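My main concern about presentation is that the manuscript never shows what a single data entry looks like. The format is easy to grasp once an entry is in front of the reader. For illustration, here is how one protein appears when written out as sequence plus structure tokens:
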Amino acid sequence: MIFAALVALLVGGFSTAYLSSGEVRYLWRAGYEETRILQSRQPIEKLARDTTVPTARRDQFQLVLDVRAYAASLGLEAGATYTTFADVGRDTLLLVLSVSPRTCICPHTWKYPIVGKVPYKGFFDLNQARATAEQFEGKGFDTYLRPAGAFSTLGWFEDPLLSTALTRDSVELAALVFHEIAHNSLYVKSATPFNESFAQLVGYRAAEQFFRERGDSAKAASAADRWLDEIVLGNFYTELLARLDTFYASKPDSVALDSGRVAIGAWSREQLEGPVTAQLRTFHIGKLPVRPVNNARLIGALIYRTKLQLFEDWYQKHGANIAESVKAMRELQAGAEGKEAYERLEKALTP
């Protein structure tokens, strides 16, 4: 994901005269936390050789180094991303807030320099995150707060590997490294779902190729299956979104709105527990809680799963070769912004 710490550092030298006190506190905290993380970095190459570091952790560090080298061989701009490690000292690095009106899937966006409009806001200050969510809820919005363990500054700074990322298994860790490096390689301004969904493709398909070339067919298959599971979930969310769009377009009154959201929530639960989970290869969906639709929660889920089949089609069109897929996508998206990204991709895939 792309995080506002980048913005905080970029705008920190500008006047805050036109910012509210809350925005000033937010930017100060984000800048402070990012600076603290950057100052605590240690070289991963050194840690991978340090015999005082537990063997399992050293193996993770070596895997990151190997993945970085492989990413560079694929033409990805690895830069200095994940050449260092920082222990953040807690399980949750930050909370990410998504917001939407209750009457449509219409993400509230925040606008920042460089990155453009983004449909979420990241908070290092957990109390500030909850307070901001409560402010939106008081105005009648749906909100969703989710933890995040990693972020990218698009190559502007030497992003360290964070301790929050090391709870993952080796396949997910490799996919994460490829995912974040993908953001350095291609970023379309004001096109967050495109950027994250593209990085999902790169993360899992590059991990698959990486493990296969290392002779680890089991992990290669696992990476491929996890990507295919993401596509299954993405297809489910696309169908759910279509149902909600039709429902909200009917302009229901407040009573009908509440009952309709409960009914569609029940339908989505039945789908996830039944036909969707039957298609999944690696994910397990157990018994889900009964709850109405939350538009903000859906936005959070969709950011990483928007039209994933298009990316898979692009990958197959380029010979199931991730290096060629990335190179061609960068050429295709040169100068694109916002919704142009998907428009260009769809046009390029049209026979």
In short: Residues 1-39+94-148 form one domain. The first strand starts at residue 42 and ends at 43.
